[in-house]
Write a sequence for this structure.
């Protein structure tokens, strides 16, 4: 049985949706490479978590090699996600990139089927198909814009695949370690991966303007602390399904912010594709948890959730 939240859950959910919607805006406002933005975003987040780590020190010290390896792997794919997705924002529009990123639940359910043998309903699969068609239309619309935009769309697709692997690992690991320890170790691991990438690539760690450093800090505080960490905290009080629905709010919020702050426009192909993708995802996320099979005596019982 879930705990009762100290405040109405709609409040932190709304805060989280607004917070993650700003992520793409801050990325666009910084001229620093995506690998540097990602590294400092996660490093600063880990540093902000550090003052509250004392109650979790014993758990950190007792981590087995196997658990630590899985957490590092999760961090590796988180870093890969940020590298590809934040890189895509340098090449395509906020609307295209974030709507494609919203296909994350589709990739997760496919991965969960092969890894955890979890099934979903035919109606949910239909919704998945609609969402994929919408994503294809977004890419098709960007073909008419430029080849660069299309490459950005592809980077967003691969970035979504990477974060899906990260989430599938996390689905297992959060049952073995606390959400705070999971987030802290994964963020530090991703920071190390980024640092190695930047070092090998000869990318400067410090040659950035004051505005860029401000964006690094904002990326850590707004979409990470008030977004991702807040969603992790909410898992104590609401289902993963409820939180995953918030992913549909990001492309809407991010597109609106991009229109107001970056003066980005969308083609009709992109608008139609975005609406189809969001509609398909709504069908998928709702139907995916309403799977039933005949029980004894002709009654019904729920199948295992895909969350």
């Amino acid at each position: 049985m879930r705990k009762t939240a100290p405040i109405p859950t709609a409040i932190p959910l709304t805060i989280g949706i607004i917070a993650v919607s700003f992520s793409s805006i801050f990325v666009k406002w910084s001229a620093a490479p995506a690998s540097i933005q990602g590294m400092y975003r996660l490093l600063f987040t880990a540093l902000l978590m550090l003052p509250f780590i004392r109650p979790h020190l014993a758990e950190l010290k007792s981590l087995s090699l196997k658990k630590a390896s899985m957490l590092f792997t999760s961090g590796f794919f988180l870093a890969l996600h940020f590298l590809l997705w934040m890189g895509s924002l340098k090449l395509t529009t906020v609307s295209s990139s974030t709507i494609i990123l919203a296909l994350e639940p589709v990739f997760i359910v496919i991965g969960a089927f092969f890894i955890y043998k979890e099934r979903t309903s035919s109606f949910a699969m239909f919704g998945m198909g609609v969402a994929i068609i919408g994503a294809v239309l977004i890419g098709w619309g960007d073909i008419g814009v430029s080849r660069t935009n299309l490459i950005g769309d592809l980077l967003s697709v691969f970035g979504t695949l990477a974060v899906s692997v990260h989430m599938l690992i996390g689905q297992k690991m959060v049952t073995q370690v606390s959400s705070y320890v999971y987030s802290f170790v994964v963020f530090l691991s991703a920071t190390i991966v980024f640092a190695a990438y930047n070092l090998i690539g000869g990318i400067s760690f410090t040659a950035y303007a004051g505005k860029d450093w401000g964006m690094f800090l904002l990326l850590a505080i707004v979409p990470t602390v008030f977004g991702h960490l807040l969603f992790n905290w909410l898992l104590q009080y609401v289902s993963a399904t409820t939180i995953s629905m918030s992913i549909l709010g990001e492309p809407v919020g991010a597109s609106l912010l991009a229109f107001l702050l970056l003066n980005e426009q969308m083609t009709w192909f992109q608008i139609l594709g975005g609406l189809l993708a969001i509609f398909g995802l709504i069908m998928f996320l709702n139907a995916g948890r309403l799977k039933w099979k005949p029980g004894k005596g002709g009654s019904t019982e729920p199948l295992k959730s895909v969350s």
